[in-house]
Every structure is written in structure tokens, then in C-alpha cells.
Design goal:
The protein contains eight helices and nine strands. With 242 residues, it is an alpha/beta fold. The chain has one domain: Rossmann fold (3-Layer(aba) Sandwich), CATH 3.40.50. The protein has a seven-stranded parallel β-sheet, sandwiched between helices. A two-stranded parallel sheet has the order 7-8. Strand 1, helix 1 and strand 2 form a beta-alpha-beta unit. Helix 1 packs across helix 8. The longest helix is centred in the middle third of the chain and has 28 residues.
Length: 242
């Protein structure tokens, strides 16, 4: 075991759950932010209580974010992963949905990064901030105006934050997956749609949660010590061109 501390948001399911397990398996103490209590109960069966602390709450609520900031003294690594989707046609996007998605998919990333970057500086920790973005932070798509806007904002934030924090040895990056299968139920229920998407991917495969977790972990290791202000795009070649 080691003394490295990692905080993961959106740890209750999908990519976030796999990221949480990866860092735990590598010997880290993990702070895990989940949206619902049933997610926490599920994860409690996997993690040793001595190496995990859970926070359950809504990242749409700034008070919850501030509470986490007060309770956690410092971290070596922050992994921003929490997110929601919006698939509405641009002219149909509701203001309340715009606000909620921006709050969770971008503002929570910004605020938590700011909170924990300050703690890294105070404690002289050359830490890492990794955010899970999307290939839609690098290209557009139909009916994804809100989601893509948040991911483009995240990519811009990452480059600027990397420049501001570089003098402290703090690295800031994103991981940008293509469509990632998070459950076999999804594979069965949306088979026709998934088949259409796969045809656009040169490698003819989707990202997996295990792959994305491994990339997120890599970005915190010594092998990535010179990587900052950039995005690792795990899209099977989709954004390379038509």
C-alpha cells in the first residue's frame, strides 16, 4: 500500500466506478463521491473501510461541493468524472436543463479543481487533476449542443489551468472517450444505434470502462510527468477524419 490519496467524482457507476476500483487496486486511499446512497452501498462491498471515504450528494449543489472541500484536507490526485447527458435538439433545450448540465459537467469540475489545487499548493504537492471529457469536446454532433458545449469548455479550462498551475508541478489533463459501453443492458437495448455508431469508428470497437480507468491512472504516474494541458482521445480513430 502507499500514502497516495485520490478523489473520484461520479464514482457510483460506469466509468467512475471503474476508475475508483483502479486507483484502489493500485494501493491508493480513495475519496469517492456518489450521487445516491444505493451506489454507496453497492461499492462498500468492494472497498476496505480503512482505505475509502464516501460522500453522497448532488454536484448540482454548490454547498455539497464546499462540504467536500472542507472535509478533505488534501489529495494527490483529483479525477473529475461525474456527468449527465442531454440529447435534446438545440431549439428544444430548456433553460433549467442547460443550467443543470453546465453545473455538473463543467462548474463542478472547475470548482473542485480550484479547491484541491489550492490544497496541493499549500501542501507543496505536485499533484494531478484529470477530467473525463469526451470526443465531443473535440468535435460536434447532432442534438448534443449542451453536452458538447460543456466538454469544449472543459478542454479549454484544462489547457489554461495547466498553464497557471505548471509552476507548482501540478498537471492538468483530460481523457476523451468515444461511446463507452457501461452495461450489457445498454448493449442489448440499443443494439441498432450502437451498430450505426461502430461503423464510424476505424478500430470498429467502443471504449471500455477498464480502458478509460487505465488511462486516467496512467496520467497520475511518473511515466506521465511531462504530460499536461492536453487530452488523451480514446475514440478508436473517430476524430481522425471521415
Amino acid at each position: 500500500m502507499n500514502n497516495i490519496i485520490t478523489l473520484v467524482t461520479g464514482a457510483g457507476s460506469g466509468i467512475g466506478e471503474e476508475i475508483a476500483k483502479k486507483f484502489y487496486e493500485e494501493g491508493h486511499f480513495v475519496y469517492l463521491l456518489c450521487h445516491k446512497n444505493n451506489q454507496k452501498r453497492k461499492l462498500e462491498k468492494y472497498f476496505d473501510k480503512d482505505r475509502v471515504t464516501f460522500f453522497v450528494g448532488d454536484l448540482n449543489n454548490r454547498r455539497f461541493i464546499e462540504k467536500v472541500g472542507r472535509k478533505v484536507r488534501y489529495v494527490n490526485n483529483l479525477v473529475n468524472n461525474a456527468g449527465i447527458a442531454n440529447k435534446d435538439y438545440f431549439l428544444n433545450v430548456k433553460s433549467k436543463d442547460l443550467d443543470k448540465l453546465i453545473n455538473i459537467n463543467f462548474k463542478s469540475y472547475f470548482l473542485l479543481s480550484q479547491i484541491f489545487a489550492k490544497k496541493m499548493v499549500t501542501n507543496r504537492i505536485k499533484g494531478s487533476i484529470t477530467s473525463i471529457s469526451s470526443q465531443l469536446g473535440h468535435m460536434g454532433a447532432f442534438n448534443r449542443t449542451v453536452y458538447s458545449a460543456a466538454k469544449f469548455a472543459l478542454e479549454g479550462f484544462t489547457k489554461c489551468a495547466a498553464m497557471d498551475l505548471g509552476k507548482y508541478g501540478i498537471r492538468v489533463n483530460t481523457v476523451a472517450p468515444t461511446k463507452t459501453i457501461v452495461s450489457e443492458i445498454e448493449r442489448k437495448k440499443t443494439k441498432k444505434r450502437l451498430d450505426l455508431i461502430k461503423k464510424k469508428i476505424p478500430l470498429n470497437k467502443f471504449s471500455t470502462t477498464v480502458e478509460i480507468a487505465a488511462i486516467a491512472y496512467f496520467l497520475t504516474t511518473e511515466a506521465a510527468n511531462s504530460i499536461t494541458g492536453t487530452s488523451i482521445i480514446s475514440d478508436g480513430g473517430w476524430t481522425s477524419g471521415k
